[in-house]
Amino acid sequence: MSSLSLSSLPHALHPLTSYGWDTGWAAAFAPYAERGLLPGRVVRVDRGQCDVATAAGVVRADTEFVTPHDPLRVICTGDWAVVDPDGDPRFVRAYLPRRTAFVRSTSSKRSEGQILAANVDHAVIAVSMAVELDLGRIERFLALGWESGALPVIVLTKSDLVDIPAVRAHLVEDVQNAAPGVQVLAVSAAAGDGVDVLSAVLSGGTSVLLGASGAGKSTLANALLGRAEMEVQATRDVDGKGRHTTTTRNLLVLPGGGVLIDTPGLRGVGLWDAGTGVGQVFSEIEELAEACRFQDCAHTAEPGCAVLAAVEDGALSERRLASYRKLLRENQYIVAKTDARLRGEIRREWKRKGAEGRAAMEAKRGGRPR
Question: What domains, with CATH codes, occur in the chain?
Fold first, then answer.
């Protein structure tokens, strides 16, 4: 069957429907179909080559023609690729404009962004209940999830290891308080508890599975797939940490509908221009800030600060406010390293605050010089 006839098939009959193909992707691909090229979903990328699911099956293709200098424009798992109809090797000629992209900053001094997955509908954040919850880390993942354009979902894994129901309910409540507007599910992949609910949530699109090593992502992926597709390794009893089981990002079709991108465990979760995402995670603080006396209130010691008043009366926790400040500072720093104008604004602000601080100290000393 030619690429033209394939592109004209009804959505439900297209061979790539199980990979997420829809009428929107068909419309975007139409100019390439006229040239006899084929659509395909990138299921894995490895050293300049990628595996692409096409109507004829999974093919190996070279990414030589889509390897720009910008790390955010390299082809990645989840992209919809434009592939040669034949040849050995085949080549990816382009990829369709992304609907969403999950991006974090790298640990390099150049502060480059790294794209982890493309065209994702759900960002599934796996957090182990077998170790002490790090709410700040969860909020960091959520900021990146919201910023990507995907809908975050938090999955508290290994719930069977918390055998006291009241303790389990308390942990879920703590995470819900740190994740306003986000669905939080307690799941035991080993016992099968909650897997059917999560499967139903993810059945309507593409999901990326994120979390630290030892969070139980591979076990969870296997439970959703209904088979032992991903290798699983035991975590250390001493701290609950695990080794990297998944080493590449793999896109897998779920039997209950939808597709799942499994990712390696993330040691570092650096923000990358995620100001909107941070605001979404701390939406209650952003709402409170609208009632502050000053529009540029920093919520530190200003008179008439509604945020500090909420902390004072117990409506807002000091931990939440501290986490909000930390992520805002970090995001501003990352953006400033790639934005000369913002760098200048920050430097001027630092100088202004420094001058104000020195003036305040002089006033306390009665104007006496040091």
Answer: 3-95 (2.40.50.140), 101-262 (3.40.50.300), 275-364 (1.10.40.50)
